[in-house]
Amino acid sequence: MTSKPATDTPIYDYIIVGAGSAGCVLANRLTESGRHSVLLLEAGPRDRNIWIHVPLGYGKLFKATKVNWMYQTEPEPHLNGRSVFQPRGKVLGGSSSINGLLYVRGQHEDYDRWRQRGNAGWGYDDVLPFFKKAEDQQRGPDQYHGSGGPLPVSDTRHPDPLSQAFVDAAVEAGLPRNPDFNGAAQEGAGWFQTTTRYGRRASTARSYLRPARRRQNLRVETAALARRIVFEGRKAVAVEYSQGGVAKSARAAKEILVSGGAYNSPQLLQLSGVGPAELLKQHGIDVVLDAPGVGRDLQDHLQVRIVTRCTQRITLNDIMGSRWRSMLMGLQYAALRKGPLTIAAGTSGAFLKTNPRLATPDVQIHFLPFSTDKMGEALHSYSGFSASVCQLRPESRGSLRIKSADPSAAPEIRINYLATETDRTANVEGLKILRRILAAPALKPFSVEEVEPGPKVTSDDELLDFCRKRGSTVYHPTSTCRMGNDPLAVVDQSLRLRGVEGLRVVDASVMPDLVSGNTNAAVIMIAEKAAEMILQEAR
Questions:
Q1: Which residues fall within 8 angstroms of residue 110, CB to CB, at 6 or more apart?
Q2: Mapping DSSP to helix (H, G, I), strand (E, B) and coil, where does residue 78 land?
């Protein structure tokens, strides 16, 4: 698409590229005092799609092209050459507007590991205050939780019997009961908390951006696709973007903050001349900084699901398959904001060790009172429920590289799932433990048979083959602009892009490695901490 040039170039103190999980936090915090002007650019639309605000609506958003980038990986060599769908939010709130809503920070040890790798200020004791600052915990404040913050964190509003039976079965299988996965320890079985309040999704667009929209020092531009960052020498000074077919630009008096996420942030940097020099030259892009780490070290969580046929017609499959039960579900939600429409992408779950020698859990289980062949597709016609194994700390690393100098072209995504023996073993052992949980007494009254992978799949080789055939993403890409001190690290401990001035990256791409949980909570923490660092330096 050819864009017509605009004439005026406005100046703001800060320009934030990407109004997602991190960008909305930054926009709120940086404009709070009224002293700093901020431009927030978002490639997608406003969050007006009704299904964004209904928790179970995430299933409707998987293929909603207006609010979803709908990326695909290249053929994955260890998944039988399959391409894996990668939904990412393209809307105010970013992926916090289309995700599965689970609030799981990860383990204390994740952040201590970041600090031990030379990232001073990022240990658990350092980041806990920012988790608490963000949080409005339904249960009230304590040593690990905050209240009064912008982000609502709530208990389930639909405690269905199947999800409770899973918790009881996991305890029968030897796991401790854990009422708080974000508290003193993660190991055990329990119910997930979610980023919801009174049965509605609490995206960062709703929690952080909406209260800030009336501020005179904040300008929000939607349908604004960033094309490149403009440098004067090695100082980032402006952002060029297109909006409604018109080429526009804006200058930053202080800093440009890139918050496009683990895919779009390295893509924009590469389009702007910051990345592997050979790649940039291949696409005719002038090299500002040869930064081979930009786009490297991509990680994601893989999930492999077991599907079980249920003895009773109490699953979401049964509700959705009945017109009158669906109507009752809608009425219950409309009147009370309760019921199945409040279900997140995991009702109950567990964190466990596949090897007793491990210090902390290496697998997460997501339980759901429904079943489907693929998330976002029609539910099965039979009564069914599902539980998935997710390896928490994969060793496998991939990459993101631009395919073209066109900002609207999707990048090349290679995640390299199951590339190491550790990853393969963790998934196989996780499935074996999950089978033991699903066979425990508490779930026996609800279980007819295992549908997938099925009773004929028994050996380790057969289970690994099932992982290769059916494994898919849990939607947690990270680390493509990772923080560190080594030659391939992209940002420093203040999230400044190493080798240039006036530019920071603030999103999941800066994580040194994956956290042991669902990444959204960690991204919001990162943005809270980044905002404080930026404001302290601006004084």
A1: 124, 515, 516
A2: coil
In this model, does residue 5 exceed pLDDT 80? no
pLDDT reading at 207 higher than 90 = yes
- Provide the angle, in degrees to the nearest 10, between the axes of the packed helices 421-438 and 460-470: 100
Is the sign of the CA dihedral 34, 39, 41, 45 positive or negative?
positive
In the annotation, is 476 catalytic?
yes
Average pLDDT over residues 98-119: 98
pLDDT in tens, 471-521: 999 999 999 999 999 999 999 999 999 999 999 999 999 999 999 999 999
CA dihedral 271, 285, 416, 306 (to 10 degrees): 30
Block residue for tokens 């990459």: 399
Question: How far separated are the first and last CA of the chain, in Å rounded?
Answer: 42
Contact criterion met (CB below 8 Å) for 100 and 518: yes
CA–CA separation, 90 and 95 (whole Å): 7
Residues 36, 366, 380, 476: which is the catalytic one?
476
State the average pLDDT over residues 341-354: 98
* Residues 217, 204: Cα–Cα separation, whole Å: 19
Q: Where do the DSSP E strands lie in 138-272?
A: 151-153, 188-191, 196-197, 200-201, 218-221, 224-232, 235-243, 246-258
pLDDT digits (tens, 9 = 90+) for 113-164: 999 999 999 999 999 999 999 999 999 999 999 999 999 999 999 999 999 9
pLDDT digits (tens, 9 = 90+) for 233-243: 999 999 999 99
Asked if the model's pLDDT at residue 4 lies above 90, the reply is: no
- Residue ranges of alpha helices (H) inside 120-228 are 124-134, 161-172, 204, 210-212
The CA–CA distances, whole Å, from 97 to 54, 94, 266 equal: 10, 6, 21
pTM for the full predicted model = 0.97
Sign of CA dihedral 94, 96, 100, 102: positive
User: How distant, in Å, are the alpha carbons of 97, 332, 366 from that of 49?
Assistant: 10, 20, 26
Please report where in the chains the tokens 């990986």 appear, as a residue: 73
Joined tokens for residue 499: 């080798």
Which of 299, 491, 295, 286 lies closest to 411, judged by CA? Answer: 295
Cis previous bond, 211, omega within 30: no
Task: Find all residues with CB under 8 Å of 289, minimum gap 6, and list them.
Answer: 234, 273, 274, 499, 500
Tokens of 66: 């207006």
